[in-house]
Amino acid sequence: MEAITIKDIARALNLSTSTVSRALRGSYEISPETKRLVMEYAERMEYRPNPIALSLKANRSKVLGVIVPQIANHFFSQAINGIEAIAYNRGYHVMIMQSHENYERELIAVQQALVRKVDGLLLSLSSQTTDIAHLQSLHDKKFPLVLFDRVASALDVPKIIADNYEGAFAATEHLIQAGRRRIAHIGIATYMSITQERLAGYRAALEKHGLPFDETLIRHVGLGQHEIDPIVSELLSQSPAPDAIFTASDRLALGCMTALRQFGVQIPEQVALVGFTNLTVAHLLAPPLTTIEQPAQEIGQMAAERLILQIERPQHKPISDIQKLPTKLVVRESTAGGMK
Q1: Distances (CA, A) of 136 to 41, 118, 152, 231, 338
Q2: Residues in contact with 103: Cβ distance below 8 Å, sequence separation at least 6, in sequence order
Q3: Which InterPro entries does the annotation name (predicted)?
């Protein structure tokens, strides 16, 4: 059965389409009796407003575009949950796209979001993104835009992130207090905001406790196991070898755990291990992984709130500062025991 329209209701009740439209909106211009007739007929015939027609009339789609590197990533799936919760409560839908850590795909995703007339965009940069001209162009046109987690400092838009510096500081200090002295750090692309912030926190903790910052203990890799294995092998070949590894993500920590096991290294007796994210399975690993918990869902919620504020109050200049949400050290067996 074809969907009933306002014209159909008007024809059936011998009313004008404008009268039916105003009655459905609850306008004070329409009498209570006419409103009742229209609403009862609309309910009986299962009338549903056409969202496309409504969006054209209001010049809004009520859709938020979300572009993330990878939905399968635990952090981003939780952030999306937060975004969707706020969007749903505010009457918005969410269109989710992935860059798959690829700059060109990020460009295409942004273009697709614009073609589909999203009201605003929430975006976390891919690991390949160094040129932000496509986002600067949106900002210059006053298109509502919020960055989260992986951000670009040069872009004057709202940015919502975890406190990466404090999280990395806490992770490194925990290892130092557990007696570790040669702590390696493995991060991803050097130009990324999260990489720089976490490296800075690691370095500050070493400095606080009088330990030297050793460039030979720092590595930057992709996320594939084929890249992590040789990095771990190189670190273990040093003399003396590292007695701990702090990774910039739990995904890297999982790769390190696999590599250490292959090389016959005991965790934590020989090498302690700390990650960053707090995967849902972190406590199920062997050994359970000590990690930094990020407030992913809260980041998504705050990002969505900031975006909707831009959309609904375009006359107000958006707050373009960085909002940092606190992280939490979760201690498990991958750092317990061993050296003291």
Answers
A1: 50, 17, 10, 36, 50
A2: 126, 128, 129, 130, 131
A3: HTH_LacI, Lambda_DNA-bd_dom_sf, Peripla_BP/Lac1_sug-bd_dom, Peripla_BP_I
Instruction: Give the CATH number of the domain where residue 182 resides.
Output: 3.40.50.2300
State residue 291 phi and psi, 5-degree precision. Answer: -155, 170
Q: Please report, for the domain that includes residue 35, its CATH number.
A: 1.10.260.40
Statement to judge: residues 136 and 235 lie in one domain: no
Q: Are 271 and 175 in contact (CB under 8 A)?
A: no
Do 14 and 34 reside in the same domain of the chain?
yes
Q: How far apart are CA 152 and CA 85, in angstroms?
A: 25
3-class DSSP state for residue 5? Answer: coil
Between 41 and 133, the more confident residue is 133
**What is the average pLDDT value for the chain, to the nearest integer?**
90
Domain with 16, as residue range(s), is 6-49
pLDDT for residue 340:
41
Claim to verify: residue 202 and residue 225 sit in the same structural domain? yes
Q: Which of 37, 10, 58, 83 is nearest to 50 (CA)?
A: 58
290: which residues sit within 8 A by CB, 6+ positions away? 171, 174, 272, 273, 274, 275, 329, 330, 331, 332, 333, 334, 335, 336
Q: Is the pLDDT of residue 249 over 60?
A: yes
Span 227-256, mean pLDDT?
94
Based on the fold, state whether residues 171 and 253 are members of the same structural domain: yes
The answer to whether residue 287 is domain-embedded is yes
For residue 175, pLDDT over 50 is answered with yes
In the three-class reduction of DSSP (H, G, I as helix; E, B as strand; rest coil), residue 231 is classed as helix
Residue 122 and residue 203 share a domain: no
Query: Which one-letter amino acid corresponds to residue 260?
Result: L
Which tokens go with 177? Answer: 């207090």
Half-sphere exposure of 23 (CA within 13 A, CB side): 24
Q: Are residues 113 and 84 in the same domain?
A: yes
DSSP label of 63: E
Q: How far, in Å, CA of 212 to CA of 180, rounded?
A: 13
Judge if 276 and 172 occupy the same domain.
yes
Percent of residues, the chain, with pLDDT higher than 90: 69
pLDDT value at 49 more than 80: no
Total number of domains in the chain: 3
